[in-house]
Design goal:
The complex is a heterodimer of chains A (about 400) and B (about 475). Chain A has about 400 residues and is α/β, with parallel strands linked by helices. Chain A has a domain at about 140-310 and about 370-390: 3-Layer(aba) Sandwich (D-Maltodextrin-Binding Protein, domain 2). Chain A has 16 helices and 11 strands. Chain A has helices at about 25-50, 70-75, 75-85, 95-100, 120-130, 145-155, 170-180, 215-225, 235-250, 260, 265-270, 280-290, 320-330, 330-340, 350-360, 375-390, and strands at about 60-65, 85-90, 110-115, 130-135, 140-145, 160, 165-170, 275, 300-305, 310, 315. In chain A, strands 5, 6, 7, 8, 9 and 10 form a 6-stranded mixed sheet that branches. A 5-stranded mixed sheet of chain A has the order 2-1-3-11-4, sandwiched between helices. In chain A, a hairpin with a 5-residue loop joins strand 6 (about 160) and strand 7. In chain A, helix 7 (about 170-180) packs across helix 8 (about 215-225) and helix 9 (about 235-250) packs across helix 16 (about 375-390). Chain A is elongated. By secondary structure, chain B is α/β, with parallel strands linked by helices. Chain B folds into 3 domains: about 15-95 and about 235-280, D-Maltodextrin-Binding Protein, domain 2 (3-Layer(aba) Sandwich), CATH 3.40.190.10; about 100-235 and about 290-310, Periplasmic binding protein-like II (D-Maltodextrin-Binding Protein, domain 2), CATH 3.40.190.10; about 315-480, 3-Layer(aba) Sandwich (Rossmann fold), CATH 3.40.50.410. Helix content of chain B is about 40%, strand content about 20%. In chain B, the strands form 3 sheets. In chain B, strands 5, 6, 7, 8, 9, 10 and 12 form a 7-stranded mixed sheet that branches. In chain B, helix 6 (about 140-155) crosses helix 12 and helix 13 runs antiparallel to helix 14. The termini of chain B are far apart. The chains are: A alpha/beta (about 400), B alpha/beta (about 475). The interface between A and B is large, with 37 and 38 residues. Chain A: Keywords: Membrane, Transmembrane, Transmembrane helix. Chain A: This is Extracellular solute-binding protein. Chain A: It comes from Saccharothrix carnea. Chain B: This is Ca-activated chloride channel family protein.
């Protein structure tokens, strides 16, 4: 028997292979979009130097300073330093002269310190050594609320510069309001020709000359003005100090951080006229212009006609500190940022701040060409001690 | 495949979250009112890992303890001024928030007090129109700030208060209004809630007053009154006492100064942010007036506390008033005006509730003795008009006999003699001095016209008092100059 068999040919159907999950439309579109965004992000991070951060060793650098901490706490400065592998951690010393006093005997444990001015810088360098960098400068000025400046102008003691945001102050005449020639009591703000509603005696409120650079430099300027535009010498330092002491007793207990509190909403209460640095005022006004499109005209600046340019010194005690000194001194982005924070750069770029102010729509101030000379360090110390009743800082001479 | 993707996501997320901050506990010597930071400190612990254990004390007391040496890691006081006055090296210090010293006055009483000076406050307190609670200045910064505010305004120099400016107790009028005290700024708020029906106001920080209003515990809301001639602003510095806690200190300061922490402090405790960029809530936008120049020496604080300690004593003053005919015209008119002013206004120098005023009128002999114990506004009014109808007499001028009479009624008070003539009746100066070899009361003399300055001066000085010449200025000013001195 022959089995009949019939065998059907097997039929093959060729199926399309399943599409890879990666090539499906449902996947491709969101992936493409996300990848695009990520790419843009990476490019942006590269440009800012941030992407390299996790792969770069960040050096933590410790520093101590007073008012110049605004610079190292500025987010933009921090970012640029980070991109260069440096994270600066700042400890507030209270005042620049406190660094020299070194109450906890730990100054050299910091990688660097940054006193606000040269006289305090010299004290520290001479006591602790270190490598000094001179990154920028800022004149010593008075911040004032508008009606106080106008009252001083009506009194013939101040003169408004072209735009009214800055004034030139006749320092000798101003000090005379606090220290009348005839030995009478100081005038009060409400006794002026154009009175201000304030029964306090007229004085520029200042930080304590014992602790702070601005306080001590202001005392030096007042002494210069009272002493007929001559800095007191070894012979007459004590006598001049005794003479100007009443000016510094009007305020009683000195406040600290006027350069900060002046710009608070309660600034009129804490110090309507106070000693500060130009950079504090300019940084504030540049920020106001950026935010509101115009400067704050309630707060004005008085430039004394005896000019004192303060130079913060960056004194490095370690290679890490020196690295920061080199960056701050030389990195173009950091220098640019210093300008935007109101500092003046050294003589090579002495007009840079003015240019920036003009660019941002702020008036350019006119500074006095007369320098107010401070007494030599031993005399200055002697006078500070006499005026401020403070613990002595050893002057290594 | 799916698991792999999930794992990838989890790994990526884990990489993004920062590692948990190291947990640290630090001890803090803190002003008593900082107990209200409880919730803020919980957030601080969550975000930074730093737990602050606060040990509460009044700011003045805490500053004394700090100067003597404490075992805390940090200090957080309403101000570091009292510590500065101790002359110790100030530890690293960062302001964290602001609050001015104010008066919280019941809405019904606040009407005339909107734009006040310390003198107005003192005047109302002396008249019994403003009764308040305030913290003990020996312990609390808010109590001491109030004393300094009143005394600086009373001295009226426009400069920081010096010890010699506190010679006359111009604080007495103000302190007449003090109904209750409390050890600290926090306790004064609790005490106010408990005794709110007895008083009109509380002297405290703005934050305390606003928090009281928000507490729902007050039957009548308080209005914040800023004494515009002398604001004392507290800035609550956080201070590092132990250098080895620096890392934790820096972390806490950094956190406290972030805008979100500043906002949280403002919303929870009604203190003003120190960060000018943080938008303030409505009640905290108010401009607060002229700041006070704070005294520069510890001696001033000590002098004020001595004056404060004397404030509880009932005052008694005997006025010995010349009513001989030579006083006719401007002199008697000036005398009457002085009494009217001192009874009705007169700021820091006015007559005050709790005080006893004895008027001894004399000419050739004592004409009248009249005692007014001041308990109310009606008593003050009777004193204001006590001299308006008093007649002058032609019988001579018996200065020493009148003073002899005053010494018999003075008790532990002071004597103020006013005369314009030479003694021509009764006891002689020598006789008087023989009768009173140890005079029982400090004696001031106000002279005008022909009165013999030498003899008056001899007697006044023997008692520790002095002679004030009314010839050169107004009688009122002369009376004010010696009022309240003991």
């Amino acid at each position: 028997m022959v089995a009949k068999s019939s065998t059907e040919e097997p039929g093959f159907t060729i199926l399309e292979p399943p599409r890879s999950v990666f090539r499906r439309k449902r996947f491709l579109l969101p992936f493409g979009v996300s990848a695009g965004i990520a790419l843009v992000g990476v490019v942006a991070l590269f440009a800012s130097g941030t992407v390299a951060l996790p792969f770069q060793r960040i050096t933590v650098v410790s520093a101590m300073m007073a008012s110049k901490s605004v610079y190292f706490q500025d987010p933009e400065v921090r970012r640029i330093l980070m991109a260069n592998g440096v994270d600066v951690r700042v400890t507030d010393s209270g005042g620049s002269r406190e660094i020299a006093r070194d109450r906890q005997d730990r100054v050299r444990e910091y990688d660097f310190v940054m006193p606000s001015g040269q006289a305090a810088g010299e004290l520290i360098r001479d006591r602790f050594g270190g490598r000094v960098f001179f990154p920028f400068a800022s004149p010593l000025v008075l911040g004032a609320f508008k009606e106080y400046a106008q009252a001083l102008e009506a009194e013939g003691v101040a003169r408004a510069q072209a735009d009214g945001l800055y004034y030139t102050l006749d320092l000798a005449a101003f000090v005379k309001l606090s220290l009348p020639d005839d030995g009478s009591r100081a005038k009060t703000w409400n006794q002026l020709e154009q009175p201000v509603d304030n029964r306090n005696q007229i004085v520029a409120q200042s930080p304590n000359p014992c602790d702070s650079y601005s306080g001590s430099a202001w005392m030096g300027l007042v002494a210069f003005a009272v002493n007929g535009s001559v800095p007191p010498t070894e012979q007459d330092a004590s006598a001049v100090a005794a003479k100007i002491k009443p000016v510094f007793e009007i305020e009683g207990l000195h406040g600290s951080g006027i350069g900060t509190t002046f710009f608070h909403p309660d600034g009129r209460t804490t110090a309507p006229v106070g000693v500060m640095y130009e950079h504090q005022f300019m940084a504030y006004q540049l920020a106001e212009v950026a935010k509101k499109g115009r400067p704050d005209r309630e707060r004005v600046l008085l430039y004394p006609d005896a000019h004192h340019r303060t130079e913060p010194w960056l004194i490095a005690f370690s290679p890490a500190g020196e690295r920061v000194g080199e960056l701050v001194r030389g990195h173009p982005d950091l220098r640019r940022r210093a300008l935007e924070l109101g500092f003046r750069l050294d003589n090579e770029e002495s007009t840079a701040l003015n240019e920036l102010l003009r660019e941002r729509g702020l008036p350019e101030p006119v500074l006095s060409r007369t320098e107010g000379f401070l007494p030599k360090p031993p005399e200055l110390e002697k006078m500070i001690k006499e005026v401020g009743r403070c613990p002595e800082i050893r002057v290594p001479i | 495949m799916r698991w792999a993707a999930l794992l990838l996501v989890v790994a990526a997320l884990a990489a993004c979250t920062s590692e948990k901050p190291e947990r640290v506990t630090v001890t803090v010597l803190a002003s008593s009112e900082l107990a209200d930071l409880h919730d803020v400190l919980a957030d601080l612990r969550r975000d930074t890992g730093v737990e602050l254990k606060l040990d509460h004390r009044g700011t003045v007391r805490a500053s004394e303890d700090l100067a003597a040496g404490v075992d805390h890691d940090l200090a957080w006081l309403s101000t570091n001024r009292y510590l500065k006055l101790k002359g110790v090296d100030l530890p690293p210090s960062s302001p964290t928030m602001l609050s001015p010293l104010v008066l919280g006055v019941k809405r019904g009483k606040a009407g005339g007090l909107r734009d006040v000076s310390w003198a107005d406050v003192a005047s109302r307190a002396a008249a019994g129109e403003l009764r308040f609670g305030m913290a003990d200045p020996r312990v609390s910064g808010s109590g001491m700030a109030a004393l300094i505010g009143v005394a600086t305004a009373a001295a009226g120099t426009g400069a920081a208060l010096r010890a010699e400016d506190v010679t006359c107790d111009k604080l007495q009028g103000f302190l007449t209004g003090r109904v209750f005290g409390a050890p600290g700024a926090a306790e004064v708020a609790d005490e106010y809630v408990a005794r709110q029906d007895e008083v009109d106001a509380v002297v405290a920080y703005e934050s305390t007053v606003l928090s009281l209003n928000a507490s729902g515990q007050l039957r009548e809301p308080l209005e914040v009154v800023y004494p515009r001639d002398g604001i004392v602003l507290s800035d609550y510095p956080l201070m590092l006492l132990k250098p080895d806690k620096r890392a934790a200190y820096d972390r806490v300061v950094q956190w406290l100064r972030t805008p979100s922490a500043q906002r949280s402090i403002m919303e929870r405790t009604h203190r003003r942010p120190v960060d000018p960029q943080v938008e303030r809530t409505d009640g905290l936008r108010e401009p607060i007036g002229t700041g006070l120049y704070f005294p520069g020496t510890q001696q001033v604080v000590d002098t004020l506390l001595a004056a404060y300690d004397r404030a509880g004593q009932a005052g008694r003053v005997v006025f010995v008033l010349d009513h001989s005919t030579s006083m006719a015209g401007a002199r008697i008119a000036g005398l009457r005006e002085a009494f009217a002013t001192l009874s009705r206004a007169g700021g820091f120098d006015r007559f005050r509730v709790g005080e006893t005023v004895v008027l001894v009128r004399f000419a050739g002999s004592v004409l009248e003795e009249r005692t007014v114990v001041i308990r109310s506004a009606a008593d003050l009014e009777s004193l204001a008009t006590a001299l308006t109808t008093a007649e002058l007499s032609e019988t001579g001028t018996a200065i020493w006999s009148a003073l002899d009479h005053a010494y018999r009624v003075v008790g532990d008070g002071t004597v103020v003699l006013m005369t314009d003539g030479e003694n021509n009746a009764g006891m002689s100066a020598d006789g008087f001095l023989a009768a009173w070899p140890a005079p029982p009361a400090r004696t001031y003399a106000i002279r005008f016209g022909e009165a013999d300055p030498v003899e008056l001066d001899r007697v006044a000085r023997a008692t520790g008092g002095r002679v004030v010449d009314a010839g050169s200025g107004s009688l009122l000013e002369a009376v004010k100059e010696i009022r309240g001195c003991r």
